[in-house]
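Model it.
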Amino acid sequence: MLEVDCPCVTPETVLKASGHVDKFTDLMVKDEKTGNCFRADHLVKDFCKEKLEKDPKLSAEKVAELKHVLAVLDDLSVDELGAKIKGYGITAPDTKNTLSDPYPFNLMFQTSIGPSGLSPGFMRPETAQGIFVNFKDLYYYNGNKLPFAAAQIGQAFRNEISPRQGLLRVREFTLAEIEHFVDPEDKSHPKFSEVSKLDILMFPREDQVSGKQAKRIPIGEAVSKGTVNNETLGYFIGRVYLFLTQLGIDKDRLRFRQHLAKEMAHYAADCWDAEIECSHGWIECVGIADRSAYDLRAHTEKSGTALVAHEKYAEPIEVEKLVITPVKKELGLAFKGNQKMVVEALEAMEEKEAMEMKAALESKGEAEFNVCTLEKVVTIKKNMVSISKEMKKEHQRVFTPSVIEPSFGIGRIIYCLYEHSFYTRASKDGDEQLNVFRFPSLVAPIKCTVFPLVQNQQFEEVAKKIAKALTAVGISYKIDITGTSIGKRYARTDELGVPLAVTVDSATSVTVRERDSKQQIRVNVDDVAALVKDVTDGVSTWADVLWKYPTHSS
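Modeled.
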C-alpha cells in the first residue's frame, strides 16, 4: 500500500470530471420569509422521530408509515421529499414559516486559484481524487502490477447545510481513505478467508425497505449469496469490523448498512456504511464502496491521458478490434488549434459511441460529437475519421481498473469511541460516582502514570528513573508528584483512560495497577518499562502478567 499527500485545493476541471461539480449535493429548503436554510431530509427525520416518541395517540398504521419513511428516507427523490414536507405540514423549526420546495445545494467550498482569479477551484470534498489523477505514476511505482492500493489521511471540506452534533457533522474534518485498485474481471481477494467467518451485524437494502431489523450474517455467506458485491469489498468490510472493534467500539452497537438504490453516490456500484450507535442514533463512520471504474474512466475521458492497466497474455490472441483513424489533415483544416484535442477525443471513444458515429456518418455524412476537453459539441464529417473493425493479434489486455474504497471519518470514530469507552463506578467509600474511560491499551493516548506513594526524595528519584526507562522504549506517560492521596491520583488516572498506574512505594520494587479490574502486581523497578510496553503494545495481556508476577493487595 502506497501513501500519498495531495493538495487540499483542487482545480475545477478535476472535480468536473469526477462528477462532484454537478452531483455532489444535498437537498435544501428555505424559510420563505427569513431565507434561513435547512437540510430537507433532516427536517423530515426530526418530524418522524418526534411524532413516534411524543405522540401516544398515533394509530398503528401511522406508526408503521412513519417508521417506513425513516427507513427509506435516503432513497426519496426531490419530489417525494417535497411531498412529505407538505403532507406532514412541516415548517421552519424556529419561525414556523412555510418552506420552499427542496432543491439541490452543492456541498463544495469554491475558491479561485492564482492572482488573476480566472482559474476556479474547490476545497477537496474527499481525498480520493488526488489519488485517481496520480494513478499512472502510482501504477508505475508498483511495478505496473495489480492489485495495489494507495492511502491518504488529510483534511476534507464540505459546506454542510446544517452543521450540528459536535464532531459528527462539521464543515472541516479528517478523512482517511484507501483506494484499492483491482481487475474488474477478478475481484477476489487472497486474504478473504481470514475474515470470511466473521459474524457481522448487517443491514441489506431489502431488509431496510421491508421494515426488518439488521441481522448477523457471516461475511463469507454475504458474499457467496451476492448480498455483498464481491470478495474484495467483503474483505474490507471484515477488516473495518476488526479495526473498529479493536479500537474499543462495542460489536453489538456496530452494524454495516447497505446504501439504498437512490442513496448511492453517483460513482458507486455497491456501498456499505459502518454505522455505530451512540446517543445521537446510528452514525455513519466508515463508508466501504465499490466505485467500479467510474473515476479512472471519467479522468481518462476529460484529460485525454489513458489511466489503464495491462495484463500480458501467455500467448498472443486474435481479437476483433475497433480501429479509429482520425484524418489529421482534414481535422486540422476544420478545427485548427483545437485539432489535437478533437483527435484525442475521437481516439478515446468507447466501442458503442464509435459504432453509433460510424452509422451516422454513413447515413448522413456527418455526426455531432461532444469533445469534453473543449466543453462543446462539434460536427465531424465523413472525411475526417475512419472507423472500422479488424482482426488483430494482441499481446496484452488493456483495461480500466475498478476501485474498492474504505473511507474513514476520523472525528466520528473518535466521538463514538469516547461514548463506548465511558462508564462510571462507585468510589471506595461508595459516596460518589467516578468517571472511567476504558480505552484499550493500543489506543489510549497516555499508556501509564507514575507516582511516588508519598512525597519522599528517594521515591521521587525511583519515579524519575522509571520515567526515563519508559521514554527510552517510546511509552507515553504522565508523572504525578503532587502528593495528593493515592486514591485521588488513581481516580484522575482512570478518568484519562490510562490503562496502567505505577506506584513507587520502595526503592527496589513498585506496584502496577490495571485500570478496569483495579488489580495490582509487584514488579522490580528494572522490569517496569518492558512490562508496560508488552501490555500496551498488545504482546501480553493483563491475564498473562498476573501469572508471571505476584499480586499486591492495597
